[in-house]
Amino acid sequence: MNKYIKLVIAVLLIGIGIYMMFFTRETGWGVVVFLLSAFPIFLFFKNEFILLAFWQIRKQNMAKAVQWLSKIHNYQSVLHRSQYGYFQYLSGLTLAQDNPAKVEPYMKKALEYGLNMKQDRAMATLNLAASAISKGRKQEGQKLLEEARKLDSAGIMTDQIKMMKEQLKMPSMQKHMHNPHMRQRGKFF
């Protein structure tokens, strides 16, 4: 549903509530209808599909989270500007387990649009660091890990950050890996 349709519904509910309170003398029902107008206003700023996707991710049910996110076809017409980052963030989180290489553009866009909570920014930065480390960009990964550590004020991701710092210390396997069957062989046999 378009975001502006929700505002039209809210205005209609406010109008009906005022009409019921003052013109029909149904004050109780008028107040109820007037208070119900807060629901579409809330859904204007916090999209229902994003809220349901967050709920499914919290329950570790990624398939249902993808289903809820797939109902948002054109996120710029459906979501408020403050929710663009969260749509990209949730899209990246749902891809993280199946296709970790495709997460980087989603997290970059999520940070570009902006995430309200520090923990969400820390998680997005940690995913970017993991992507940079896996692609061999160690300096960038180290900077991102340090930024994620600063953003993680609650200390929820300290174990993941430590594990990734240990991965940074390990040598790159591509440069140091040798084929054990080729060590003792000569040129012609």
Reconstruct the topology from this structure.
Elements: H1 3-22, H2 27-36, H3 38-45, H4 48-58, H5 62-70, H6 75-78, H7 84-96, H8 103-113, H9 118-134, H10 138-151, H11 158-169, H12 173-176
Helix pairs in contact: 1-2, 1-3, 4-5, 4-7, 5-7, 7-8, 8-9, 9-10, 9-11, 10-11
Can you tell me about this structure?
The chain is mainly α and 189 residues long. Helices cover 70% and strands 0% of the residues. The chain has 12 helices and no strands. The N and C termini lie far apart (70 Å). The model has no long low-confidence stretch (mean pLDDT 86).
Quick overview of this protein structure:
With 189 residues, the protein is an all-alpha fold. 70% of the residues lie in helices and 0% in strands.
Report the portion of residues in β strands: under 5%
Number of E strands: 0
Instruction: Figure out the total of helices.
Output: 12
Intertermini distance? 70 Å
Give the oligomeric state. Answer: single chain
Radius of gyration: 25 Å
Helix content: over 70%
Mean pLDDT: 86
- H-E string: HHHHHHHHHHHH
- Biggest sheet: strands, sense, closure? none
> Based on CA inertia axes, which overall geometry fits?
elongated
Structural class: mainly alpha
The poorly predicted ranges are: none
Summary keywords:
189 residues; mainly alpha; 12 helices; elongated
